[in-house]
Amino acid sequence: MVTTFETLNREKSDQELWDGIRNGDERAFTIAFDRYHSTLYNYGCKLSPSSATVEDAVQDVFIDIWRLRKNLTSDVSSIKFYLYRALRRRINIGHERFPVTEEISMLDDLEITGNDTNSETVFIEGESKSIMEKRIRGLIARLPERQVEALTLRYFDDFNIEEIAQIMGVNDKSVRNFIYKALTSLRHNREYIISPALIFCILWFS
Amino acid sequence: MKFAPYTLTELIRNDDFISWVRHPDAESEARWQQFLLEYPEKTKVVEDARGYVNLLAEDTGKSKPTIEQTNKMWRVVESHLHEENVEDVQQPKIISAWKWLRIAASIALVLGITSVSYWYLNRQTEIASVIGPQVAVTENGLIEKFNDTGKPMTVLLADGSSVVLQPNGKLSFSSKINTKKREVNLTGKAFFEIVKDPQRPFLVYTDGIATKVLGTSFLVDAPENGSEINVEVKTGKVSVFALNKNASLSEREEAEKPELKGIILSRDQKIAFSRVSGKPVKLPETSLEIANVADISTQLFVFDETPMSEVFKALESAYNIKIIYNESLISNCPLNATLIGQPFTEKLTVICAALDAQFEIKDNQVTITGNGCR
To answer: Domains of chain A (ranges plus CATH)?
Structure first.
């Protein structure tokens, strides 16, 4: 993951920036703000509908890092990861929200099978770009916010499953389930009716 | 890597596939080209999946801050870069800044003064002068102050802290000295300037909420029939938390510990609590600006080569207390001091130390005696 960020800004690696901040280097701190405040803000917007709250939280995360710089741990593989976790904690405490653990763990028992036979996919092949865009927009709009959060961390922010699990405070399996749930609308009916399309899919891919 | 014949959805969820689409490197490029060679019929699915992954990234990454927002955030962060934090409150500051309108011109709090004035104040053992007439002692030993005048009234507490009580405000406190805590009850609006004493937290009880500080200045507005209780911090840190009138003993004891708990407010932050639910309510952003200019809670008390006559005028109007001094000797003496957040008597102590003068508080007036400028 770390290398991903380095390709974006080759001058200083995350570890260099982190060490700089710990030693009170304001330039390193400024670069870190410049590099991450925007995506951090984007993530914050998935956690709170109020842009003022998000702005304040982003500020506070950076202020805290600087304020507590002497007590920061030396090995941080990714500043971004550290910042995201701090932001989430801050916004959720501010909202007196309950951790999402319960919400996610409900899905824990769900056995995810390798194939998609008992689920409907939201993605359809061979569509034009504009229809695809419409589909994704519709999907994001109707998903619960926790699922949008997981998708954001996965697709936009490039965190891996383990990192997302730590940011959201749940286990890896829950995150996988969460994303699976977001991308497929599961059928509650056990005696599912196999639609012609599904039969086609099974035949096609088996 | 599992080279199973992927479906569209499987590809979209596949870790390896996502990182190839988002950040291709030589290795992943080679691997997926190989996959397409083996399964040429998958070309269309891979293309579609790639499109969806990119769209998902694009769509979840749309909430970018505007340039104005970025600048605003950076200004606030930057203003904290050179702030040396001496307080070791490690708890997260839970409520973030609503408004950081004013950055105090100087944080030069004259720390040494605290000890001097502390020595001075500790000589007074009983509840000190309560300036103004409206005092009543209730049967349970509570001293009650009610401001039925049309002007602010300053109440001096035994520990040296001062409270500027606004008209119709009521403040009550015990006549006995408590070694573990300092506490007052408030109805109405008052501005507090509290002497630092980490061992004895200062608690302000208003209907349903408690405000706890270790030494700082802040405004509490708990109108008798209002729906909200407002707390605004001027200097230092305070914590605000719900505390019912019928709170159990253990809850009360918990509240009296020196640790700050609940919602922590810092300089220039404010919060409103709903009286009904005891929950915080965010304030409209404009409310801070319409504050009365003459009000003590908006004054910075920063003096830079300021003549004493003006310094005294500022204090007289802020605390509504008459200050008597020899004008021909003292009026033109210059003062350099930042007195924000200090209780009234501490301010006087600082000024008198600068003048080499003494002060006496009696009958709602202060008398300064000195021999002119140093």
So the answer is: 2-94 (1.10.1740.10), 102-205 (1.10.10.10)
